[in-house]
């Protein structure tokens, strides 16, 4: 099992400029992550999620993370979404 902090660090290792917020949805192996990175510019949502899943691939392969719900944003999209919320 990984802490939310460890998962955040895994993602930041792969996406160094990312702002990452990980939340435990229960049991320690069901997580939700919000990731904001300029690396997502020009990439489809699927490609964005693939970048994040690549960062946590080992933890998911061992089932230390059973489920990971993702929300990914470019910095501009994050700014726009937080202004409308």
Describe this entry's structure for a reader.
The chain is 44% helix and 26% strand. It has 85 residues and is an alpha+beta fold. The protein has one domain: BolA-like (GMP Synthetase, Chain A, domain 3). It has a 3-stranded mixed β-sheet. A hairpin with a 3-residue loop joins β1 and β2. α1 crosses α2. It starts with a helix and ends with a helix. The mean pLDDT is 94.
- How many distinct beta strands? 3
Biggest sheet strand line-up: 1-2-3
> Can you tell me the CATH architecture?
2-Layer Sandwich
Overall mean pLDDT: 94
Count of DSSP helices? 4
Structural class: alpha+beta
CATH topology: GMP Synthetase, Chain A, domain 3
CATH class division = Alpha Beta
Principal-axis shape: globular
The fraction of residues in strands falls at: 25-35%
The named CATH superfamily: BolA-like
Terminal-residue CA separation = 33 Å
The percent of residues in helical segments reads 40-55%
For the sheet with most strands, the description reads: 3 strands, mixed
* Cα gyration radius (Å): 13 Å
Number of domains: 1
Weakly predicted, low-confidence segments: none
Order of helices and strands: HEEHHEH
């Amino acid at each position: 099992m990984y802490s939310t902090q460890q998962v955040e660090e895994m993602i930041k290792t792969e996406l160094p400029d990312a702002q990452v917020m990980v939340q435990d949805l229960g049991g320690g192996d069901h997580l939700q992550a919000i990731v904001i990175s300029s690396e997502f510019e020009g990439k489809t949502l699927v490609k964005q999620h693939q970048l994040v899943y690549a960062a946590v691939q080992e933890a998911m392969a061992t089932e230390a993370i059973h489920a990971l719900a993702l929300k990914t944003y470019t910095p501009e999209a994050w700014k726009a979404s937080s202004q409308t919320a």
